[in-house]
């Protein structure tokens, strides 16, 4: 493990090509836009009805949404 003074970029630069490729794959996976179904599911804690969630998800799927947070956990 590198020292605390190195940035994440600096630490990644020192890693092997295999590690760098895997990190990029994971970032790509994590930042992929959510599907309509995933958006609808993420809206469950919002208190919206299923019909309202479907309508909202349909409208929101046009945006490149990668995460939906909730304080109702």
Give an account of the 3D structure:
The model has no long low-confidence stretch (mean pLDDT 87). The chain folds into two domains: 1-32, no CATH class; 33-73. The chain has helices at 8-13, 17-30, 36-42, 50-60. It is an all-alpha fold. The chain is built from four helices and no strands. α3 (36-42) packs across α4.
Task: Record the SSE blueprint.
Layout: H1 8-13, H2 17-30, H3 36-42, H4 50-60
Helix pairs in contact: 3-4
Provide the domain count.
2
Helix content: 40-55%
How far apart the termini lie comes to 33 Å
Cα gyration radius (Å):
18 Å
Shape: elongated
Approximate strand percentage: under 5%
Largest sheet: none
Overall mean confidence score, pLDDT: 87
Work out the number of β strands.
0
Question: Keyphrases for this structure?
Answer:
about 70 residues; 2 domains
Summarize the entry for a quick read.
The chain has 73 residues and is an all-alpha fold.
């Amino acid at each position: 493990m590198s020292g605390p003074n190195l940035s994440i970029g600096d630490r990644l630069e020192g890693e092997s090509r295999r590690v760098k490729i895997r990190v990029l794959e994971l970032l790509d996976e994590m930042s992929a836009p959510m599907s309509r179904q995933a958006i609808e599911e993420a809206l469950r804690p919002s208190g919206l009805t299923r019909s309202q969630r479907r309508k909202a998800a349909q409208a929101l799927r046009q945006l490149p949404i990668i995460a939906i947070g909730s304080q109702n956990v």
